[in-house]
TrEMBL record:
<dbReference type="GO" id="GO:0046100">
    <property type="term" value="P:hypoxanthine metabolic process"/>
</dbReference>
<keyword id="KW-0479">Metal-binding</keyword>
<keyword id="KW-0660">Purine salvage</keyword>
<dbReference type="GO" id="GO:0006166">
    <property type="term" value="P:purine ribonucleoside salvage"/>
</dbReference>
<feature type="domain" description="Phosphoribosyltransferase">
    <location>
        <begin position="18"/>
        <end position="164"/>
    </location>
</feature>
<dbReference type="Pfam" id="PF00156">
    <property type="entry name" value="Pribosyltran"/>
</dbReference>
<keyword id="KW-0963">Cytoplasm</keyword>
<comment type="pathway">
    <text>Purine metabolism; IMP biosynthesis via salvage pathway; IMP from hypoxanthine: step 1/1.</text>
</comment>
<dbReference type="GO" id="GO:0032264">
    <property type="term" value="P:IMP salvage"/>
</dbReference>
<dbReference type="InterPro" id="IPR029057">
    <property type="entry name" value="PRTase-like"/>
</dbReference>
<keyword id="KW-0328">Glycosyltransferase</keyword>
<dbReference type="GO" id="GO:0000166">
    <property type="term" value="F:nucleotide binding"/>
</dbReference>
<dbReference type="InterPro" id="IPR000836">
    <property type="entry name" value="PRTase_dom"/>
</dbReference>
<keyword id="KW-0460">Magnesium</keyword>
<comment type="similarity">
    <text>Belongs to the purine/pyrimidine phosphoribosyltransferase family.</text>
</comment>
<protein>
    <recommendedName>
        <fullName>Hypoxanthine phosphoribosyltransferase</fullName>
        <ecNumber>2.4.2.8</ecNumber>
    </recommendedName>
</protein>
<dbReference type="GO" id="GO:0004422">
    <property type="term" value="F:hypoxanthine phosphoribosyltransferase activity"/>
</dbReference>
Amino acid sequence: MRIADVQEDIDHELVSKEEIHTIIAKAAAQASKDYAGKDPLLIAVLKGAINTLAVFSQEMSIPCQLDFMSLSSYGSGTKSSGTVTIRQDLSTDVRGRHILIVEDIVDSGRTLDWLVKELKRRGAASVEIFALLEKPSRREVEVDVKYPGLEIPDEFVVGFGLDYDERYRNLDSIAVLKPEVYQGEQA
Ligand code: 5GP
Ligand code: MG
Ligand code: MG
């Protein structure tokens, strides 16, 4: 789906499809060098990071494995609940594995902070992060993003996997919604 297909809901496009792919390709090229010979396991947190993982993994020039985890830290709206629970766990034993978490966006940092600690607790050999987007002004917890993507302002964004109330995930770029789309909710 393109911006034009949901034009009435969109305030403006923030990151174009081309820019998204350029950011991911650059990080994947670096990661391919760093992880050569290490048989990395790429982990995406469902559902927001699926598009990012799909492109990232295809842009890697070395073999890697993929796995997924579903965590809840956000409800249906735009605010963090502050607590992280596992809705669906990995199918891989991470003991001794070199893990690269491929994330859509780092907001407060709480989800990633929790996940990095959890994977290390399970015995991962290393845990690093690629984040397509970061909102530095919203950070509450220090998280070391080894492969940073793009810093964006404190605006709620949708598209390229990111949803508002399960909608707009299949938009091929990243955009800011018109305020009236989520009116009634305190952002
Ligand atoms: P954090 O734990 O860093 O606060 O954010 C956790 C998750 O909240 C992100 O991985 C993402 O799924 C969701 N999130 C944070 N900011 C946004 C945003 O601007 N738009 C959408 N759609 N989801 C967001
Ligand atoms: Mg996410
Ligand atoms: Mg969401």
